[in-house]
Specification:
Elements: E1 5-7, E2 13-15, H1 20-32, H2 36-48, H3 54-59, H4 65-77, E3 81-86, E4 89-94, H5 96-100, H6 105-109, H7 115-123
Antiparallel strand pairs: 1-2, 3-4
């Protein structure tokens, strides 16, 4: 089911109900950031503003390198981070386009996200 924004008589914007496929996709996004380590990774990559290796990221966390790699893979699955392979190294960075259009939890739950958001998320993959 597609969503589209409409304006109510009070001037607020609403969207039609979301369908199961969209709800499942959005649940995956929230699950991906539902872990404190993943939030720390996103925060680190956002504030450092340059690609980082797993080793560099791990230096800033209280978990091991394999755990960091696991969390990066989960974030990459939903498009929040991107990886560039350079020789034998992997350089991770925030997917700015993806995160800039990620809605707040309230917007999703309250149905205030239009198709422009959904379309933008699809373009990041």
């Amino acid at each position: 089911m597609n969503t589209f924004a409409t304006t109510t008589p009070t001037g607020t914007t609403q969207t039609d109900r979301i369908g199961r496929p969209q709800a499942e996709e959005w649940a995956g996004w929230f699950a991906a950031i539902g872990d404190p380590t993943r939030l720390l990774i996103l925060h680190l990559l956002s504030t450092e503003q340059h690609p980082m290796t797993v080793g560099e990221i791990t230096e800033h966390l209280d978990v091991g390198q394999s755990t960091t790699s696991h969390h990066l893979a989960k974030l990459a699955e939903v498009g929040f981070v991107l990886v560039e392979r350079v020789g034998t190294s992997s350089h991770w960075r925030v997917n700015e386009r993806c995160l800039s259009c990620f809605p707040s939890a309230a917007e999703v739950v309250m149905g205030r996200v239009g198709t422009d958001f959904t379309d933008a998320m699809e373009e990041t993959r």
